Amino acid sequence: MDTVTVEPIEPGRMAAGCESCAAHNAANLRRLGVDMSDWDYVVALAGNPNVGKSTVFNALTGLRQHTGNWPGKTVTRAEGGFEYGDARFKLVDLPGAYSLLATSLDEEVARDFILFGQPDVTIVVVDASRLERNLNLALQVLEITDRVVVCLNLIDEAKRHGLTIDERHLARRLGVPVVPTAARTRQGLDELLQTVSDVATGKIICKPHRARHESPDLKAAADEVEADLHRLYPNLPNARWVALRLLDGDEAIIQAMQRGELGDLTRSAPDSEAVNVIRLEAAPA
Ligand SMILES: Nc1nc2c(ncn2[C@@H]2O[C@H](COP(=O)(O)OP(=O)(O)O)[C@@H](O)[C@H]2O)c(=O)[nH]1
Ligand SMILES: [Mg+2]
User: Domain check: are 160 and 238 in the same one?
Assistant: First the structure.
């Protein structure tokens, strides 16, 4: 297995350091609600359904987003803004997903944003009381981007079930920072903000664990398809991932390719019609 480290700050030490400056951090947070002009960084919130993504979103932006179902069938991602330190952040609350190998429209929307929207940081919110199931998505996200912070949410629920999680060990194994939180009571959110900010600005460099299992034949085939993709779509992010999905026969990706949609899935492209981007009304948190 590859050696994994989170550099340069060890997560345990980081958390301890932040305890003493939590008040300072909170004072540094300015919720911007729907004002997302001139953002410096885009942060995506990904995770399984019901892990507290919207609770984190609301706490950081000062917006009140419905938890529960949205009216109608349109898949929605919500966007809001906050300012922290000297930087402005756009936060995108993605629909729940168990996997990036999308099987539902929700998962497709989440996958496309993580893969092609090129967020500066992806927060993967996981349920601390159901860690094993939740790590599936986290590991898939770590395959495609280095800039990940794992938000180990529902830590209060985990405790209630008698579970303790060694988050420092988990961070070392994953190679990215892990921040324990109970978002409903705002516990740990200051540390989360500081960590997201440090990853965004490059103060923390992540070294995610990646499975290296390509056989020479697979590598040669993937290299060839990847080169073709670069020729067809010079601006396509994560062409390697797309190449591997094509070789795997992923129908959704093959169809997107046949419809000529892959090139549209970049950060600057307009939102696809299926996605209803709502910019929420600001309300006191
Ligand atoms: N006990 C506890 N409940 C939480 C926590 N975070 C969120 N919740 C609750 O979990 C439910 C799902 O949260 P939500 O933010 O809608 O999850 P999402 O589907 O990932 O957006 C809501 O009832 C929240 O109030 C937490 O840290 N602890
Ligand atoms: Mg939600």
Answer: no
